[in-house]
Amino acid sequence: MKIHKKILTHYLSCTSPVDKEGYLFKKKERNATYQRRWFVLKANLLFYQERPADRHLLGVIVLEGCAVRRSESEGQFAFSLVFEGFKTYRLAAVDHQTKESWVKSLLSASHCYLSLLVRDLGRQYEEAKQNQGSGESSSSAHMNSDLFFPSTAAVREGRSFSAGTVLQTPSFHTKAMARKSPKLWHRRNAHVTPLNGPAPLYGEWPLVDLDPLEDFRKLHDYYGQEVKRVREEWMRSRQEEEEEDSDQDLIYLG
Amino acid sequence: MRFNEKELVSLSRQPSEMAAELGMRGPKKGDVLKKRLVKLVVNFLFYFRTDEEEPIGALLLEQCRVEKEDSQTFSIVFLDEAERKYLFECDSEEQCGEWIDSIIKASYEFMRKNLIFYRTEIHRLTGKDPLEQYGISDETRFQVSNGLQLMPRDTSSL
After folding, report:
1. Counting Cβ atoms within 10 Å, is residue B47 exposed (0-12), middle (13-18) or buried (19+)?
2. Domains in chain B, CATH or no CATH each
3. B11, B63, B139: residue with CB nearest A64
4. Residue A146 burial by Cβ neighbours in a 10 Å radius (0-12, 13-18, 19+)
5. Residue A103's closest chain B neighbor by CA?
6. Which residue ranges are recorded for the region named Disordered (chain A) (predicted)?
7. Which member of A102, B11, B88, B127 has the greatest number of CB atoms within 10 A?
8. Closest-CA residue of chain B to A17
């Protein structure tokens, strides 16, 4: 299979951020000796060459479907990339800190991992926006049920995740953002969401099916419209108030 | 240049939502349109001869530009070189749009940007860094692009 080397080397040398780089020892498969190589981690790709300035790229390891394991049996600062059913790359650092740093970076390097993380954060973001809008604490239990994300314990254990692996999400609760006075809030809620009722099920909120990655502008426009509408209602109701006897209003919003 | 070929071939055989027979034409002058099974897995675009198990090749979908060429055709340009333009012919405009969308979203860099956006926004809205609970707040790859670390904000006044 052809891997289009130039595309890879171009990506390596372009301005997108390098996630980690440094010297590591790589064990040769044939004669079990370690050779020092300069490694560059970018996205889900681990490149290696002899020296930092070298133009000649020795190789690349695509980090999908591999487990990152500490292998003390091989050496004090040794660790490996294990492709189950395939090859194991044996690497070693010069000290404990370097090893730990690399292990941690490699654990969060896969595309699958990032994909799950982005999805999870996307939902947290939507939830945070809803909460900001509603001013109530969300009943977020049902919102998390669909998504699974590696817990920190599992991350420590050292597996990178294929799309098929499923793990428990740590539950996420947002605190109520009590930004508005209760009196004003009361009024707004009557127009917008059921008062004292449960928040509509996650599936019934508008934009739930909108993939947030699709168009941020749409998402922002939508919320912008909501804000605009609420503001208009507030202005209208304020006007009505001023015309009526306003003894009962505890808060003057002038 | 060496690479973990067997592992990559195995990756190419994983199920994918975006896998279809498309007309594909390479960037060189002599290249003609050929029917290929094109498959998107993570940030790689694999292409197979129909009914073959091993892909002919793998294109890394980073630092590339995806564009609509006409109603049913899209192109991918690599290395910012117009000479490295691959053309893909779809069966419908809808399919073409789906592919363009999927390829853009499959890029690691695209996903990273989204992550940083969500991280920043969630922090702004809740005062919390959402990556803390996963123990990855200080990972270089997730840092806000201007290099500033997200600091926890005192929300007691809210």
Report:
1. buried
2. 5-106 (2.30.29.30)
3. B11
4. exposed
5. B139
6. 235-254
7. B88
8. B141
Q: Which residue of A lies nearest to B100 if distances are taken between CA atoms?
A: A214
> Least CB-CB distance to B114: which of A58, A118, A174?
A118
Q: Radius of gyration of chain B from Cα atoms?
A: 20
CA distance A84 to A67: 8
| B82 at interface of A, judged by CB pairs closer than 8 A | no
Whether residue B5 and residue A129 make contact (CB cut-off 8 A), yes or no, is no
The neighbouring-strand residues paired with A159 are A67
| Distance separating alpha carbons of residues A42 and A59, to the nearest angstrom | 13
Condensed to tens digits (0 to 9), the pLDDT of residues B38-92 reads: 999 999 999 999 989 999 999 999 999 999 999 999 999 998 776 789 999 999 9
CB A145 within 8 A of CB A96: no
Which 3-state string (H, E, C) describes A131-197? HHHHCCCCCCHHHHCCCCCCCHHHHHHCECCCCCCCCCCCCCCCCCCCCCCHHHHHHHHHHHCCCCC
Class of CATH domain A5-113: mainly beta
| Residue positions counted in chain A | 254
Instruction: Please give the ipTM for the structure prediction.
Output: 0.89
Compare CB distances from B118 to A17, A125, A177 and report the shortest one's residue. A125
Residues of A in contact with B108 (CB under 8 A): 43-44, 111, 114
Cα–Cα separations (whole angstroms), residue B59 to A132, A157, B42, B85 = 42, 32, 11, 12
Per-chain mean pLDDT for chain B: 89
What is the four-CA torsion angle of B78, B81, B87, B93, rounded to 10 degrees? 80
Give the residue extent of every domain in chain A. Answer: 5-113
Of A57, A87, A172, the CB nearest to B7: A87
Q: How many CB atoms lie within 10 A of CB A127?
A: 22
- Closest CA in chain A for residue B112: A114
Q: Could you tell me the two tokens for B19?
A: 């896998």
Q: Does B83 touch chain A (CB under 8 A)?
A: no
Contact state of A128 with B101 under an 8 Å Cβ cutoff = no
Determine, for residues B139 and A61 on separate chains, whether the beta-carbon distance falls below 8 Å: no
DSSP letter at A249?
A: -
C-alpha–C-alpha distance, residues A130 and A126, integer Å: 6
